[in-house]
From TrEMBL:
The lineage of its organism: Eukaryota, Viridiplantae, Streptophyta, Embryophyta, Tracheophyta. It holds the Pfam family Kelch_FKB95. Gene3D superfamilies: Kelch-type beta propeller (2.120.10.80). Coiled coil: none annotated. It comes from the Eukaryota. Residues 9-257 form the FKB95-like N-terminal Kelch domain. InterPro entries: F-box/kelch-repeat_ARATH, Kelch-typ_b-propeller, Kelch_1, Kelch_FKB95. This is (rape) hypothetical protein.
Amino acid sequence: SFKTLQLFSTKKQLIPIPSFPTQPETLSSLVALDWGIYVIGGFKDGEDVRSPDVLLLDCRTNTWRKVPSMSVGRAAAAAGVIDGKIYVFGGCEELSSPNWAEVFDPNTQTWETLVPMDDRNEGDNVIRETLVMDKKVYAVDFWSGSLFYYSPGDGKWGRKKIPEQVQSYYCVMEKVLYGCDEVGNVVWRDSEELEWKRVKGLEALQWKRVRKLSIFGVNIGVFWVGLRGDVWCAEISLERRGKEGEIWGRIEWSEAVATFYRSFTRTKVEVLYAAAVNV
């Protein structure tokens, strides 16, 4: 079953929060804004139907409420926040949908349709990860790992060259793109580069069953699942060293933050989403 959990930085434990009754279980998009987390679209439980619903988790009170729905259902869409507005694109049933891209203004509680990308293809409709850099919302194509973006400032779309390798998980901090595969190899590259370089000093993470990479304030967090269904998290600080500008990581802490297993029973656990919110 789907569970929403909250990680407290002091206790290093994930605390269950009741999920919204009709919360989609797979391929929702997620953004953090101010004190809340927005869960956008996704496939409805037991149905091959893309949901247009948007849910808001108030992290001050750990309560849910619905906000105005999108004009079209989405799953595996891009979603990012710029200047207090939530930009969403892709994930539609029909690639040619005139509502392929939308923006939500929390202040007015309204959605507005954006001019869609002219040269979009099927790969652009399924998003692996969303990143926000330089006032642009970047989407990572699920299949090729290529980057394309929307710039709200001038209302234009653009593309980046395809990198050498596709990573499983991504996050961005200070214009540096970080990636991680599913066995704990953490890499980095500057936004204009194509070659991935290994973050040094993180050998302890290798062969972990990594399931999510996330921003933790000025650090990054890596989540992985243990063999018996326990969820682990490590907070990593980063620094550049030497003339080559190598990036080294240091594990500040690493702990099991949640356990779901029972005696003699192996439980399937996945980390679907992660977001940092200050309340």
